[in-house]
Amino acid sequence: MDMKANKKLGLKERYNLMTRDLAWTPTYQAVKDVFPYMEYEGIKIHDWDKFEDPFRMTMDSYWKYQAEKERKLYAIIDAFTQNNGHLGVTDARYINTLKLFLTGVSPLEYMAHRGFAHVGRQYPGAGPRVACMMQSLDEIRHAQTQIHSLSNYNKHYNGFQNWRHQHDRVWYLSVPKSFFDDAVSAGPFEFIVAIGFAFEYVLTNLLFVPFISGAAYNGDMGAMAFGFSAQSDESRHMTLGLEIIKFILEQDPDNLPIVQAWLDKWFWRGYRVLTLVAMMMDYMLPKRVMSWKEAWEIYAEQNGAALFNDLARYGITVPKGWEQACKDKDHLSHQAWNVFYNYGAAAPFHTWAPSEKDMEWLSAKYPDTFDKYYRPLWTHYAKEQAEGKRFYNGTLPMLCQVCQVPMFFTEPDDPTKIAYRESEYQGVKYHCCSDGCKHIFDNEPEKYVQSWLPVHQIYQGNCFPEDVDPTQPDFNPLAEVLRWYKINQGQDNMDYADSPDKQNFETWRAQATGN
């Protein structure tokens, strides 16, 4: 009797059997009723089977792959915790970068999880649906591993305990929060372009690579471990986003202007979130890997140019605002840290003026701008502090209606002049920080007039605990806002030099080393 040997399935055949062959076409309900979000954005898809996931990962391989990474990651985290790894970092200034990361980035990972779970349900095509489901799982894993890795610091330092509460309330955290609120309230096609492009491509390279390298360089093996554990996932995420963009563009020529408008919008929105990363790299890391300017030139100008060259064959052009962003690289981090130094009494981490050694490094990295525009500023602040007059700004700044960053950005060709743009909608004036944000507002004013702006809300009396009586003669609005934020004044914030974190860290390390 002839016996036929079973043919071993190839990767593509196995992938199709495990994903696409599980799909079906609805018969007792209309397709548009089952997938109601597919038409209102104007995107036209003619053949969902044309989408190709280059990784072709099935669920059985996905779980094995991720389980192996978890095993290695938690072994490193446990070793770091048991050996008091927190005392091995350069100094306690570094710990403030972790506070910034936990409050500003980790909640975005969770929002990405929710967003991909939602849009995966909305796509009729099985290929994108499975890919989105896996990315949703990746994103919640990233949130969990980051929280677990950083929880060790919560045992020893102030300012980690209320990170989730603060993400929804603290003034500067409305910047990353509004970015994701904007994305998840869009349609599924805009969401995938927004997050696949702006979050995964623009932000990931400029956040994870310099930040995680900075963690390793400053002795933080815990943060380094979760960063490197996530990077293999991020490569899939970037690829998924770009493949979806190409797939949409290949399906119908009418999709091109819609996608181009989204790339213009989301490049600028992602770039504004990177303001926090820029100041972290140049001012918050005690030992720096590279400057913001160097990171921008490598991961944006070089990698971004390659991306847009690749998309040019579809008719895509460089996003609006690209030229201004490239000009801003000499100024962004200095201007941002100046704002946080001013408002250090209202931020949930410590701030400080750069030392003379820090300024020498900044001068070398920014030879055309630092000594001319920013060294005099920091020299003045240091002199004031030495005289016991450390400056804290007691007023609240105007915020941009779109990106929600305080209005401190300067004109592209004049770093001595603050940029202000104004739009009017239904008889009300709205303020924007740049041409990029004004263009976004003017295109969708009905969306951005709803922005929850922290400064406006504070002045309206909506950011105080319920037991507060603003009519009392001893009413202190800043103290009450901080209580609503759950920020412990002087412990979680203010200047680093007098902070409990600094004093405790130095005491603990002296005891551990016997010095």
UniProtKB/TrEMBL annotation:
Coiled coil: none annotated. Residues 410-452 form the YHS domain. One of its GO terms (molecular function) is monooxygenase activity. Keywords: Monooxygenase, Oxidoreductase. It comes from the Bacteria. CDD domains: AAMH_A. This is Aromatic/alkene/methane monooxygenase hydroxylase/oxygenase subunit alpha. The lineage of its organism: Bacteria, Pseudomonadati, Pseudomonadota, Betaproteobacteria, Burkholderiales.
